[in-house]
Amino acid sequence: MAMTELSTPKTTSPFLHSSSRLSLSSKLHLSNQFRHLLLPPLHTTSNSKISCSVSQNNQAPVAVQDNGSVKTKKECYGVFCLTYDLKAEEETKSWKKMINIAVSGAAGMISNHLLFKLASGSVFGPDQPIALKLLGSERSIQALEGVAMELEDSLFPLLREVDIGTDPYEVFQDVEWALLIGAKPRGPGMERAALLDINGQIFAEQGKALNAVASPNVKVLVVGNPCNTNALICLKNAPNIPAKNFHALTRLDENRAKCQLALKAGVFYDKVSNMTIWGNHSTTQRGGLLIQKWGRSSAASTAVSIVDAIKSLVTPTPEGDWFSTGVYTNGNPYGIAEDLVFSMPCRSTGDGDYELVKDVEFDDYLRNRISKSEAELLAEKKCVAHLTGDGIAFCDLGPVDTMLPGEV
Ligand SMILES: NC(=O)c1ccc[n+]([C@@H]2O[C@H](COP(=O)([O-])OP(=O)(O)OC[C@H]3O[C@@H](n4cnc5c(N)ncnc54)[C@H](O)[C@@H]3O)[C@@H](O)[C@H]2O)c1
Ligand SMILES: O=C(O)C[C@H](O)C(=O)O
User: Where's the Lactate/malate dehydrogenase C-terminal domain (predicted)?
Assistant: First the structure.
C-alpha cells in the first residue's frame, strides 16, 4: 500500500458565526492507487503525523459556495470545508435526494446518542443522505463544535452537511424534520410540569421559527419536557404548518410499557404488540426512578425511542399492529378533548404521515385513566395560555400524586 506522511497544521476554532455551514462532502477513499491529496485542516496537535494515501477519483475538491461567495476556511471545519463533485461516484447514483434534519439541544445528553444514529443511516435508511442542522443554546456553542468534530471523525458517508448555530431562524431553514430536544430536564424529586414555565418559551420561539423558515410540510417531534404541552405550544405558534405534523414523544413510554408487560407475562419483549400510550408522556412510568438512580434523566433509551418514533413514520406499520405518538386531537373518535396533544394509537404507510387507529375499545378502568391524563393536559394548557394565543394564563396544576415508590 502506498503510504505518505503528512504533517497536519494546528487550526484555531473555525466556528466564528452564529450559524456556520459545514459542508461535508463525498468520501475520501483510503486506497493505494491514487495520488495524494493535501487534506483539509485537522483538529490535531501541531506535531501529529498521519500515514495514508487518498484516492481522488475524478472529484475535484472546491470551496463551499454560499450565496455566490466563496467561503473562507475559518467558517467551516476540516473535511466539511470542501465539497466534491459527486457525479463521478457510482454509489451515490442510487441515493435519494438529501433531506435536512434539525436537532435542537444538539450538545445535550440525548443528542449525543441520537446524532450518530441519524448519521449512520440506521434511521432514514442506507440510501438516504442527510444534512444535520444543529441548534444549541449560547452556552453550549463550544460543546456543539465538539459534537461537529466527533461527527467529522466518524466518517459517515451519508452525512453530507453539518450546520451549527444558536438562531432557530437560521438553523431551521428548509428543514424537513425538526427533532426538538433542547430544553431543561428535571432533576430528582421534580415533576415534569415544573418545567412548563422554563421550557414553554423555547417552544413558542421555535414554533415561530419553523413557521417562518422550515419546509411547509416539516415533521416536528417534540422531546423536551413536558413534551405534550410543549408540542401544543409549538404548533400553535406555527399556523402555516399542518397541526397533524407535530408529535410529542411518547415512544419511550411505549417501549417501557412493552418491557414491563413482557416481564409480567414471562415472554421476550418482541412478543408484545398493539401497545397504546394514551395521553401524556407519563409521569406514572419509570422516568423519576431512573433520575434517582442515574442522577440525570434518561438519554440513551430516549434516543432509541426517538429513532423508533421516526422509523414508525417512515416505514409501513406491520399488519395488525400500531404505535403510539402524541398527536393533535382534532376530530378524534375517542371523545378526548379537542385542541390537545394526546398520545393515541396510530398507523403509517411509511410516507412520514399517519392515521389514527379508530376502533380500540375502552373498559371503565382505562376510561378513568385516560380522563386523568386528559385533565392533566387541560390544566397544563391553561398554564401556558399566554404562549398558545389563548389569553391570560391561569395555573393550577393541583396536587401531584404520581411519584413512584422510592422517589423523593
Ligand atoms: N419525551 C421523552 O420521552 C423524554 C425523555 C427524556 C428526556 N426528555 C426531555 O428532553 C430534554 C433534553 O434532555 P437532555 O437529557 O438531552 O438534556 P441536556 O441538559 O443534556 O441537554 C439539553 C441541551 O439543550 C440545550 N438547550 C437549552 N435551551 C435551548 C434552546 N433554547 N435551544 C437549543 N438548545 C437549548 C442545552 O444547552 C443543552 O445542551 C429535557 O427536557 C428532558 O426532560 C424527554
Ligand atoms: O422523567 C423525566 O423527566 C425524563 C424523561 O421524560 C423520562 O421519562 O425518562
Answer: 285-386
